[in-house]
Amino acid sequence: MRAATPPMPEPEPEPEPEPAPQASPPDPPSAPAPPAGQPLQLVDSEPRVQATPPPASAPVHDPTLTESDSPPSIEEIIAQLPPAPAPAPAAPRGDRGRFLDLTDEGHQFRAAGNLDEALERYADALALARKRVAGQPGDLVARRDLAAALTHVGEIHDREGRLDAAIGLHEESLGVRRHLAAAAPGDLAALNGLSTGLERLADAREARGHRSRARDLYRLRLQLAERLAAKAPGDQELASAVAVTRERLNELDQALAV
To answer: pLDDT, tens digit, for every residue of 3-49?
Structure first.
């Protein structure tokens, strides 16, 4: 009997060859060193990528517009705006505001040579001034307005030859101005107003032929004008008032000496 043949051993698998190492890319060549004396220039080794501009968006088509439509004009835009709100009504100015308006209108008509219209405005202003003083006797502003209104009306009567009416108005104005000066003895405006009142009445008296009374009034005015000029030596108007009053006094003295 033959002995059994032992089985042949299986051949061992051959080991897999190891992958060959991959060669790294060669370094870029370095730039040659610059010659002596030249500045070193830096070279960007990274490749530059040029940006691609974004695609232009297609125009939006407005179905309400046609090829022949044009942009609206400024006038069309303004016409489509809502209307502006109505201005608020002006606050009432009261009797003094109306007095000032009438006085200003009177000055304008007088400057234009329209004495009738000027007198009408001045007379209305005078009526308002009397009303205010009657309602507020202690209001010095109302009294100053009254004195001015009396003078304005009196001056129109002077210009038109109604001397008796003018004298009465100037006398009343002078009385109011004396009250104002007594209420504020140091007030230059009140003293200057008194000086003006004396001059206006003196002029009216002289025009009426009352030379002696006019001379007395001019003497009072000269004393007051000299006091005012001394308080304000740089005021040309006050200095002129002194010179004019002295001249008028000399003329009257010569006329009365005849």
So the answer is: 455 555 555 555 555 555 555 555 555 545 555 555 445 444 444 54
The count of other CB atoms within 10 Å of the CB of residue 98 is 14
**Structure token pair of residue 152:** 């304005």
Find tokens 């698998």 and name the residue: 13
Q: What are the sequence ranges of the domains in the chain?
A: 94-257
Maximum alpha-carbon separation in the chain: 202
Contact by Cβ (8 Å): 242, 229: yes
Q: 94-257: which CATH architecture?
A: Alpha Horseshoe (1.25)
Question: What is the token pair recorded at 210?
Answer: 């009352």
Question: Residues with Cβ < 8 Å from 227, sequence gap 6 or more?
Answer: 191
Q: C-alpha angle 181/165/122, rounded to 5°?
A: 70
- pTM for this model (two decimals): 0.64
CA distances from 72 to 59, 60, 84, 136 (A): 20, 19, 21, 63
Residue with the two structure tokens 């032992």: 6
Closest listed residue to residue 169, CA positions, set 191, 147, 189:
147
Inter-residue contact 205 to 217 (CB < 8 Å): yes
For residue 154, the tally of other CB atoms under 10 A from its CB is 28
